[in-house]
Amino acid sequence: MQKFIIGLALASTCLLAGFASAAEIVVVVNPKNPATRMFSEQASQFFLGKSTMFVPLDQAEKSQIRADFYQRLAGKDISQVKAAWAKIIFTGKGVMPAELHSTAEVKKAIANDINAIGYIEKSAVDDSVKVILTLP
């Protein structure tokens, strides 16, 4: 019986962890930015250094939202993203996105820069940002 209870507790923990990483992630810009909608392929251009039209902002390197974001956006894990950026930096074609340490910091930076683009949890959206893409 004790093994059953321990197994049930482990299964519940795994299930809750799955829900935590299943939070909706949205790509956001400054409300004054003229962009109204974007496809995943377009957004990945900014976050993977293939376009400089927007100034991308990243969440903290070890955060779950960052890992989930790149997996959902481009099907890449963090090590693949780092490798892509290493090539860009080595060739002098760009600099990595600024790393911010919270959703609040991302929203504040976007509110202060009409060209900034970032990602946050959908539940954190307010009038300081405009959603242009919701990731599945």
Question: What order do the helices and strands come in, and which of them pair?
Answer:
Layout lengths: L1 H20 L3 E5 L10 H8 L7 E4 L5 H11 L3 H13 L7 E2 L3 H9 L4 E6 L8 E6 L1
Parallel strand pairs: 2-3, 2-4
Antiparallel strand pairs: 1-4, 1-5
List keywords for this structure.
136 residues; D-Maltodextrin-Binding Protein, domain 2; five-stranded mixed sheet; 5 strands; disordered N terminus; signal; Phosphate ABC transporter substrate-binding protein
CATH topology: D-Maltodextrin-Binding Protein, domain 2
Largest sheet: 5 strands, mixed
Structural class: alpha/beta
Total domain modules: 1
Q: Would you identify the CATH architecture?
A: 3-Layer(aba) Sandwich
Unreliable stretches covering 5 or more consecutive residues: 3-20
Count of separate DSSP helical elements: 5
Mean pLDDT value: 88
Annotation, overall tally of beta strands: 5
Question: Order of strands across the widest beta sheet?
Answer: 3-2-4-1-5
Distance between the termini: 39 Å
Organism: Duganella qianjiadongensis
Signal peptide: 1-22
Keywords: Signal
Protein name: Phosphate ABC transporter substrate-binding protein
Overview of the structural elements:
The structure is a single chain. The longest helix has 20 residues, at 2-21. Mean pLDDT is 88; it is low at 3-20. This protein has a single domain (24-135), classed as Periplasmic binding protein-like II (D-Maltodextrin-Binding Protein, domain 2), CATH 3.40.190. It is 45% helix and 17% strand. It has helices spanning 2-21, 40-47, 64-74, 78-90, 103-111, and strands spanning 25-29, 55-58, 98-99, 116-121, 130-135. The chain contains five helices and five strands. It is α/β, with parallel strands linked by helices and 136 residues long. Strands 3-2-4-1-5 form a five-stranded mixed sheet, sandwiched between helices. The termini are far apart. This is Phosphate ABC transporter substrate-binding protein. Keywords: Signal. It comes from Duganella qianjiadongensis.
